[in-house]
Amino acid sequence: MMLFLAATALLVAQLPSTPHGMYCGGNELRFEGDLKGSSVTGAILAPEGVAIPRARVQVQLQGREEILKDFSSDDHGRFHLRGLRTGQYWLGISSAGFNLHYWRLTITRFSGEAKVRVALSLGT
């Protein structure tokens, strides 16, 4: 049991602190915090509060380079993310001219839906 705990602690310590290879329409990565749920819904806005249609939403398993999901929000800037296995992920959202905003996402069973409402910052 102690060996398993030590191996788990070592694996967690080696996970990167930011996503890698996600699309960023601006030039900065903005960490938004932690999310926990069995699924995620969200609304993506510009700084002035208007919806950003077709914003890019990406999901990456922490510690991996591969993008698992890559899709666009709808015409009203809304999205629904379902069907991920239990685990630790990065959720990234961006659009042309806007920075990448990202969350540390924990998918668990039976924990309800996490909700995101983000105003993307302009890239420089």
List the helices and strands and how they pair.
Blueprint: H1 2-14, E1 29-37, E2 39-45, E3 56-61, E4 67-72, E5 78-81, E6 87-94, E7 100-107, E8 113-119
List key phrases describing it:
124 residues; mainly beta; Immunoglobulin-like; five-stranded mixed β-sheet; three-stranded mixed β-sheet; 1 helix; 10% helix; 44% strand; globular; disordered N terminus
Report on the structure:
The protein has one helix and eight strands. The chain is mainly beta and 124 residues long. The chain has one domain: Immunoglobulin-like, CATH 2.60.40.10. Strands 1-7-6-3-4 form a five-stranded mixed sheet, with no helix packed on it. A three-stranded mixed sheet has the order 5-2-8, with no helix packed on it. Strand 3 and strand 4 (67-72) form a beta hairpin. The N and C termini lie far apart (50 Å). 27% of the residues are buried.
Provide a quick synopsis of the model.
The chain is mostly beta strands and 124 residues long. Helix content is 10%, strand content 44%.
Report the major sheet. Answer: 5 strands, mixed
- The radius of gyration computed from the alpha-carbon positions, rounded to a whole number of angstroms, is 15 Å
Helix content: 10-25%
- Are there runs of 5+ residues with pLDDT below 50, and where? 1-13
Mean of the pLDDT scores? 89
Which fold does the CATH topology refer to? Answer: Immunoglobulin-like
The CATH homology group name: Immunoglobulins
Counting DSSP H or I runs of 4 or more residues, the number of helices is 1
Q: So what's the overall shape?
A: globular
* Highest-level CATH class: Mainly Beta
Count every beta strand, where a strand is a DSSP E run of 2 or more residues: 8
| Class derived from helix and strand content | mainly beta
Q: Provide the CATH architecture.
A: Sandwich
- Rounded to the nearest angstrom, the distance between the terminal CA atoms is 50 Å
